[in-house]
Amino acid sequence: MVTNRKRGRGPRHPAPLVAWLGDRVVGEWSVREGEHRFQYAESWTAAPDAHGLSLSLPWTPDGTPLRGEPVRIWFDNLLPDDIALRRRWQERLGPADADAFDLLSALGGDCIGALRLLPPGATPAASDDGADATPLDEADVERVLDAVLAPARRGGANAVDGAPRVALPGAQEKTALLRRDGRWFRPGDGAPSTHILKLPLGRIGRLQAELQADPRDAVWNEWLCARVLAGFGLPVAACEVARFGRHEVLVVERFDRVAPVANGAGADDAAIVRLPQEDLCQALGVPGERRYEADGGPGLRDVLRVLEGGSRADADRTSFVRTQMIFWLLAATDGHARNHSIFLEAGGGHRLAPCYDVHSSWPLIGTGAGRPTAAQARLALAPRSKSAHRGLADLRAAHWDEVARLAGMGDAGLLRDEIAERLPQVLARVESGLPPEAPAPLVTAILDGMRTLAPRLHAAD
To answer: Where are the domains of the chain?
Structure first.
């Protein structure tokens, strides 16, 4: 938990926040004498389609409030792990502390998934059909992005120039807007957005972004990785690179929102549906600072155990193993548990969500000063035999076979054959579809890196 106060009893929060999913109250989150509590509403738990706010926060039959670290951890993980980013938000929004409760008191009207956090007595006033959204032209969107990067200052923001108040985890500076029929809008406070606009700043996992020749590479890197994943048939958040004045950004379609079909009957006034979801650190009750397995966070076995209990267990575990093998080829070293999510279904089921926030480390790998070698670059989730095998250069066919056995698939032979066979065609299609502005050195580094590792799909030692 991030706070500006001294350790001890912790920040004081006299009033709770009410958790809403859609137009229904789920419960109340409060902090008393430093202890976090969550009390489910009886009206929610009695409903036949109810589900827990999280797999890590199941309700008790006698209605006893949930207390302590599991509650704190889950809500804290709605926000970025980066302390400096949280403190910038604190300066901009004006809460007394940069802890999760104070920040979500200011930002919680639109959280990841379907959650809204509101003060007692308040109801979700903003329309989910976009009726109160403010139209934006290209220059307006540029000003919104300027506001995201502006030096921190206390106070609010006006309806056009200011960035919307939305709680978004992740390391990059970003904001969220509504897009309908190709037009951009600033959603009303608490109203749902449909797209996240990510700026080319920050850190790519544990490899410094400063090692890149051009900061815009972070935008094109994620776009290219998404194209590769989609080429292998994996569900991945749809995205595109766009320019608004001086800002080149990655525009990511939110998969936790279902927007009306463009130009469909009633599309202009139909409500946007919010889909409940959580990341795998939240599902497992693990704090964000331990998101990496190497720091004591979840490993492949933990993730597969979560998927085993889901509504599409076999398909999701197979998809997850395929994803990890493609991550390896991509040198996508930041695939920790916070970068994988599940949808929470009515009645208590769950299923794997699409891939997101995938970046390749190949452009950072080399022999220059301060650059990691392929042997030093390590996956966030490690295949294991007798020990963990994280290094890109360490992994062989037998390690992936062991992952497949953990997933109940037998060995990974057929999956390895499929990936090896499809790789040339996937990369060829990616190359043929590159826009002229895509940075050639970055593209070459990523695609050639994948080709370099591909023979090890069948290497015995």
So the answer is: 13-118, 134-268, 276-457
- Provide the 10 A C-beta neighbour count for residue 22: 14
Does domain 276-457 bear CATH number 3.30.70? no
> Which one is catalytic: 129, 334, 357, 401?
334
| DSSP sequence for 259-285 | PPPTT-TTGGGPPPEE--EEEHHHHHT
For residue 116, what are the CA distances in angstroms to 25, 53, 331?
Answer: 9, 12, 36
| Backbone torsions φ then ψ of 385, nearest 5 degrees | -120, -100
Say whether 334 is catalytic: yes
Model confidence, pTM: 0.91
Q: Taking a C-beta distance cutoff of 8 angstroms, is the pair 108, 114 a contact?
A: no
Q: What is the mean pLDDT of each run of 10 residues along the chain (461 residues)?
A: 43 82 95 94 94 95 92 96 81 73 89 94 74 90 90 50 71 86 87 91 50 71 98 98 96 91 52 94 97 95 98 98 97 96 96 97 81 85 76 89 92 92 98 96 96 86 55
Q: Tokens 């397995």 correspond to what residue?
A: 293
| Paired tokens of 123 | 């109801």
Residue 231: what residue type?
G
Alpha carbons 364 and 374: distance in angstroms, whole number:
10
